[in-house]
């Protein structure tokens, strides 16, 4: 369930691919994909798996953005990237989603094993729906409570609707989604929330101005 926002030189945000608010409906886009695929395969593009080398690069880039995995990771942890990539079947969306979650967790066997096990065998049940349902829902479920509200707020906006990031933050504030933080204005906290959703790859920034 990647939300895409385009930030123009006027700090405008364009939201794409918005779905419903209910957690159990987060996979509707996948059902639509299957329906479209049945009706007109010529207009639906299958995302091909990455090569092993590209899959590794994508995983490390998102799971270890601030240090070198091979030189600083404990030997006990090295087996899990292999297992996780196997579960993800080298599909970019699955790799980015899981790796981004791992980047937020302690680099311990216990934490990585817990996340790996939470993927479960469900990923292998259905070649499309089961895999992405589990991965995307796992990413959503790992959001802090306040970010879940902010993320789901996208669903009430029309697809391709343009809105400034400042306006979006004020809407979150009006809905009481933004918590007070000492030393920061509510607008600054709202911007932090948006940046966190971007960092978790639930929102993709495809263009931004010179000021960020």
From TrEMBL:
Task: Tell me the keywords, alphabetical order.
Answer: Plant defense, Repeat
Which GO terms of type biological process are on file? defense response
Residue ranges occupied by any Disease resistance protein winged helix domain in the UniProt entry? 159-209
- What's the short name of a Pfam family annotated to this entry? WHD_DRP
GO molecular function terms noted in the UniProt entry: ADP binding
What SUPFAM superfamilies does the record point to? P-loop containing nucleoside triphosphate hydrolases
Entry's InterPro entries? Apaf_helical, Disease_R_plants, P-loop_NTPase, WH-like_DNA-bd_sf, WHD_DRP
| Gene3D superfamilies in the cross-refs | Helical domain of apoptotic protease-activating factors, Winged helix-like DNA-binding domain superfamily/Winged helix DNA-binding domain
Q: Which PANTHER family match?
A: DISEASE RESISTANCE PROTEIN RP, DISEASE RESISTANCE PROTEIN RPM1
What is the name attached to this protein's record? Disease resistance protein winged helix domain-containing protein
